[in-house]
Amino acid sequence: MKNLPPDNLSGLLFQSTPSAIFTVDTDKRITSFNRKAEEITGYPAGEMLGKSCLDFAFDPCREECGLYDPEVPKPVIGRECRIRRKDGEIRFISKNVDYLRGPDGEVIGGIESFEDITDRRRAEEELKRVNRDLRQIFQIALPICVIGDDYRIIRANRAFGDFFRRDPEEVVGRLCREVMPSPLCETDACSLRQILSGEEQVRKEAEIILPGEDKLTCIVAATPYRDGEGRVAGVVEGFVDISGRKEMENRLLRPSRFSEMLSRVSSSLINADQDNLDEKINHLLQECGTFFGVDRSYLFLFSPDLKTISNTHEWCARGIESFQQSTQDFPTAEMPWWFERVRNHAHILIGDIEKLPPAAAREKAEFKRQGIKSLLCVMTYDQRNRLTGFLGFDAVKQPGKWSDEEVSLLKLLAQSVSDARQKIEMEAGLRRAKEEAEAANRAKSNFLANMSHEIRTPLNGVVGMTGLLLETDLTDEQLDFAETINSSADSLLQIINDILDFSKIEAGKIELETIDFDLTRMVEEAAGLLAVTARRKGLELTCRVAAETPASVRGDPVRLRQVLINLLNNAVKFTHRGGISLRVEPDPGGTPDTVRFTVADTGIGIPPDRRKRLFSPFYQVDASTTRKYGGSGLGLAISRQLVQLMGGRLELSSEEGKGSTFSFSVNLQPGSPPGQRRLEKGSETPASTGEQDQQTGRKPRVLLVEDNPVNRKVALMMLKKLGYPADSVDNGKAALEILRATQYDLVLMDCQMPEMDGFQAVGKIREEEKNQPGRRRTPVIAMTAHALKGDRERCLAAGMDDYIPKPVKIEELADALERWQGKAPDGRG
Question: What is the tens place of the pLDDT at every residue in 550-600?
């Protein structure tokens, strides 16, 4: 064996060549093995040197290699065979074999070069398989074609030609859109784009209309078409006609789809209102017309006297002419044969216009004018079974085949449309009734407001003058007379307040406040108001607030106080001997924030048969016109409503002749301790000249703005009694003029006055103060007979600082003047 070591240059070329190369000696032993050969075989060179080349051959190569017959040299060119790699994998190679000769021409060995062709062989095998499969597929009956990436048909089988009614040889080379009808050609183009973008398979459903207007539904399946190099060059498409299956599915699913559509459109009509009814009916006509494949669907309405009909809503299929404009106020007398059947409550089903009887000649002419070949109409009726209109379908392209199903559908839809229209008409009637009721309520509220104002204005004079009279030296008889007048005025004011409160509760206009207040103080003040009356009757009135009851709470102290005063007033009124007790304590059966109030008396009690009606408005236990105790009969009704608004329930237990107990519980959240309460931003009032006035003894100067002479006189006398110097004017315009010339510390402002009312006047005052830097803000207190809910808020919003309702008592006026004298507030008192 002779080794053939290459020189340096040859060795470098030997190792760097891209082909696998090895050499053998005459004994077929490997003498050299390059890196590429190592890579393809998986054997390192050191392991292969000295071994036979047959050690990695898989296919027998003895007969193929000329090295086995040195006498007859046979070089090998491009021989394909297989080798077994060291890891056992079989690979395909293409090899070239030649002899190595010595200087004298003798054979001293051989050289073999080879390359790995496994991937190429496999691709060729796959291409062969695809082509074989394609040839087999083309022999089956399904329509199949091949479309290139230029959208031209490369090949088509006979079934394809039969399916599309074309010669398969004639379609080759043509664009797919020239052969396949739309929208199938669009589906086809889309499939090609998807395949070219990398998808392996595309499956779609498409509808096509073939020559002769035969409509078919088919499945289109597409898969890549590859060229000789394995590159995707187009698509192979097959078509399956599923029209029969789709028709069967539709026939089976039609009842459920029909039910779904009916439910959908009926629900839509049920939820319709005046603003969208037309839109809902138009949608109904479109959906039903599309479902049944008709050319027109429409709604006609009769005039009340049935002399004309009008097409109010219409839907037309694509390409169908509308006749809605020409069928407005159409005389029914023009269609006597048709109208006679309509009046007999029959639906109209005309399968073929040409087959109408001679008596329907006028109808036939009209139908032909509109291009109608057949129609179906069903009537609509109102709740009294009076004819209102009809719902209909038209067939224009060809006579329709109206089934019982379509007749039933139209009847149901006609009823739904009638119900929807009647519902909306009823709602419109209810809205009108509601608006009329609201207008009546507004008139009632305005009347009550005006009456309140008109009654309180003279009552202010009675209460004010009586209060002043009681401050003078009177004989016993005069004192009795004055106190009687004062008591009567208080009773009249209470009745007015009860009526107004009940009216507000009835209208739902009572709103509760939520503020911090001292519960114990409020309870004691409420009891104190009735203490004098109870003492005069010789009754003992006790008030007990349990030690564990929170002192500071959040709620509506005014309304809570009103309830307690009502209950205490009734207890004093109906008790002749014994006493009344007011007890306040945490409710043992409620939450930690629930407080229970109990008013008990030893009075006349309430008979069992009258207790249920006791809380009814205007009801009294003694309802006779000469009843002993008087009153409006609204106190308990108002109290119960207020307690309910506060989340509680007013309860009664009573025994005739022994007394009654009223109790209720309300939730009162913990309030801020008095020392921690903060005024809202803007409500702080600086140290005022009022304090200086108190130090110097000077009373603030007051301007009274009041148009009523009696009330002006009363107010001036009260101010004089309280020691306040005052001037007066009778309207807002005069007040503005005097305030520009003279500085006043306080203004008492009536609201309703001629020339300029109090709201306008205070607005002007605030505007002038704002435009005059350095001018002090003058506190303005509303003193008005406007005493309904919202009047206080309206006064404060207009720029006033406080509010005193009429009739004004001297104590209330004194408190307000003391509260505001000398202050220039940014907020409200």
Answer: 989 999 888 898 889 889 988 998 899 999 999 999 998 878 889 999 999
3-state secondary structure labels for all residues of 782-812: EEECCCCCCHHHHHHHHCCCEEEECCCCHHH
The pLDDT of residue 675 is above 50: yes
Measured between alpha carbons, how far is 704 from 719 in angstroms, rounded to an integer? 10
For tokens 């921690």, the residue is: 676
**Of all residues in the chain, what percent carry a pLDDT higher than 90?**
12
- What's the Cα-to-Cα distance from 148 to each of 3, 208, 234, 520, rounded to whole Å? 58, 22, 4, 97
- Dump pLDDT digits (tens) for 454-473: 676 677 677 777 777 877 88
Across the range 425-452, mean pLDDT stands at 71
Task: Considering only residues 491 and 426, tell me which one the structure prediction assigns the higher pLDDT.
Answer: 426
> Which secondary structure element, helix H or strand E, spans residue 180, and what is its range?
none
CA–CA dist 190, 144 (Å, integer): 17
Question: Distance between CA 21 and CA 33 in Å, rounded?
Answer: 6
For helices 635-645 and 557-573, the axis angle rounded to 10 degrees is 150
CB 342 within 8 A of CB 379: yes
Contacts of 392 (CB under 8 A, 6+ apart): 296, 297, 298, 299, 300, 348, 375, 376, 377, 378, 410
Helix (H, G, I), strand (E, B) or coil at 294: coil
CA 191 to chain centre: 41
| Contact between 216 and 163 (Cβ < 8 Å) | no
- Separation between Cα atoms, residue 600 and residue 659, nearest integer Å: 7
CA-CA distance, 524 to 104, in Å (whole number)? 143
Q: Which helix (H) or strand (E) holds 47?
A: helix 45-48
**Best CA proximity match to 561, nearest among 500, 642, 633, 671:** 642
pLDDT at position 167 is 86
Amino acid at 495: I
Say what angle helices 758-771 and 732-741 make with each other, to 10 degrees: 30
pTM > 0.70: no
Angstrom distances, CA of residue 794 to CA of 756, 759, 782, 797, 800: 17, 9, 10, 5, 9
Section 542-547 average pLDDT: 92
Provide the residue type at 750 as one letter. D
Helices of type H across 507-607: 519-536, 557-573
285: nearest Cα among 412, 425, 413? 413
